[in-house]
Amino acid sequence: MFKALLIEKDDAGYRTRLQELDDARLPEGNVTVRVSHSTLNYKDGLAITGKGPVVRSFPMVPGVDLVGVVEASDHPDWRAGDAVILNGWGVGERHWGGLAQRARLDGDWLVPLPAGLTPRQAMAIGTAGYTAMLCVMALEHHGVKPADGEVLVTGAAGGVGSVAVALLARLGYRVVAASGRPAEAPYLKGLGAVDVVDRALFSAPGKPLGKERWAGAVDVVGGHTLANVCASMRYRGVVAACGLAGGMEFPATVAPFILRGVTLAGIDSVMCPRAERITAWQRLARELDPALIETMSREIALAEAIPCAEALMRGEVRGRVIVDVNR
Predict the structure, then answer these.
(1) Which CATH number fits the domain that encloses residue 31?
(2) Which residue from 69, 63, 5, 77 is spatially nearest to 35, judged by alpha carbons?
(3) H or E element that contains 45
(4) In terms of residue numbers, what domain contains 26?
(5) What is the DSSP letter of 113?
(6) Could you report the per-residue pLDDT of 283-292, keeping only the tens digit for each?
């Protein structure tokens, strides 16, 4: 038996409850993992609250992240006792996820827990931090260097934004954080931001081209924010877009792309190839300050994930939420 959050949908409605389940209910997979920690991401909040069509089949255990130890394996890459991480691959949407004490998974989805990271630290980073690193890697791949100018991070007080600010600052970039929560300015400057600006500067419909300012940007918002960020990029600037908290639409023109040579780099953390995932996690272990990991995270028990998901949907959660599934 194991404890898990279980989402059910039937004639009685949509609900998420903490339940005790039999191991026989675990889905198919060639690796069974004893989970120690998971996280609470925006997508998990949508799934738990039912505020977005995230879950594709019912019943479903949410949780797009997990870290734990292999208990049993029929996969050639993994043996009992191996410490592993999982992010994405439709887990928590189509396949039972990490907000449980056990998970049965496809071994191809797993990556090793990097040396130097504890399980708790790995989930303080989680999908949000791994996505932030993919964004940083995209900026680097397209040639954005610290000497080129300021780099903007939108949604900076959230999970992806917090890690992106910390990583970019650690690598020598001048980071400007955009947030709708003025009270979080000291927190963001503590992560390394040189300035904090109001997200309202980007959230309303804007001009096809604005004043050139940003050499690079990490956008987690989408919508008008992404359009306005693109419009204010410097010549040959690069935007790494990884989120849609502000909407799916992209109300922009081609002007930034054909007149300023701006690059819009899409970041997909769910189906990202395994080799790139391993590189991202190795770099996170090396380049993210462990002290800042603690600054940007807090830990809750498994049962607390349900009310915390509601708070996340109300925009009341800062940074990263670690879920100790055994509490």
Answers:
(1) 3.90.180.10
(2) 69
(3) helix 42-49
(4) 2-113+296-324
(5) P
(6) 999 998 888 8
Pairing outcome for strands 151-153 and 214-219: parallel
DSSP state of 100: B
Q: Are residues 139 and 105 in the same domain?
A: no
Q: What is the CATH number of the domain that holds 203?
A: 3.40.50.720
Distance from C-alpha of 179 to C-alpha of 152, rounded to nearest angstrom: 11
pLDDT, position 319: 79
Helices (H) and strands (E) in the chain, counts: 10, 15
Q: Output the six-digit token pair for 139.
A: 């900026």
Segments of the chain assigned E as strands: 2-10, 13-21, 31-39, 65-73, 83-87, 102-105, 111-112, 151-153, 175-179, 195-198, 214-219, 233-241, 263-266, 297-301, 320-324
Number of Cβ atoms within 10 Å of the Cβ of 309: 27
Q: Which of 268, 222, 253, 220 is nearest to 90 (CA)?
A: 268
Distance CA 185, CA 190 (A): 8
Q: Which of the 8 DSSP states describes residue 99?
A: S
Q: How far apart are the C-alpha atoms of 203 and 246, rounded to whole Å?
A: 8
Paired tokens of 167: 């990583």
| Residues 267 and 242 sit within 8 Å (Cβ to Cβ) | yes
By three-state DSSP, how is residue 105 classified? strand
Q: What sign has the CA pseudo-torsion 94, 100, 102, 107?
A: positive
Phi and psi of 83, rounded to 5°?
Answer: -90, 130
- Within 10 Å of residue 21's Cβ, how many Cβ atoms? 18
- Residue 49 CA to its chain's centroid (Å): 18
* Cβ count near 9 (within 10 Å): 15
Residue 142 in domain = yes
At residue 245 the predicted structure's pLDDT band, cuts being 50, 70 and 90, is confident
Query: Does position 158 have pLDDT exceeding 90, yes or no?
Result: no
